[in-house]
Each structure stands twice: as structure tokens, then as C-alpha cells.
Task: structure prediction
Amino acid sequence: MSYSLLSRTLAKSRKEHQCIWCCHQILTGSHYVREISTYDGHFQNFAWHEACRKDADQYFVESGAEEFTSGNEMPFHALYELEASL
Ligand SMILES: [Zn+2]
Result:
């Protein structure tokens, strides 16, 4: 297994993206993490909520895992729902 991070940037979303971690939408106008990487030679281009990226980092450190599956619990989900409903 080989993972290499090519770039990780904080961007402002101009359209809705789907977070790779929690599968919820990233709201237009909010900041999100854009991560471009390769995994076993496959090109990956992921969008993350900032909080989800932090959770993922913690997950990788604590579990020692190299992979993850989408559909994780979103941190601060109540806050997100509030924001999404505006
Ligand atoms: Zn997320």
C-alpha cells in the first residue's frame, strides 16, 4: 500500500461538494479541505469538511489504518444542520 499526498489546500466552495468522510454535502461558500493524492497508483481528489479531515487524521493515527470507508459520523453535525437550514 502506498499513499502519497500531493497537495492539501483549504478552499472556499463555489458549488456543493460531497465530503468523502461523512458523505454530507459541503455547503456553498464554506471552507473545505481539497486533498489530491495517489493511493497505490490511483489518483484521488477528495473534498473534506475541515472537521472531518481532523477526525480522519485522528482515526489514522489511533487505528494505524491506511484505508477508511465513507459514511462516518460527522463532527459537529448539529451545527452543520443548523447552517444548512439557513
Ligand atoms: Zn464531512
Q: What stands out?
A: The chain has one domain: 3-84. The helical segments are 50-63, 77-84. The beta strands are 3-12, 17-18, 25-26, 31-39, 42-49.
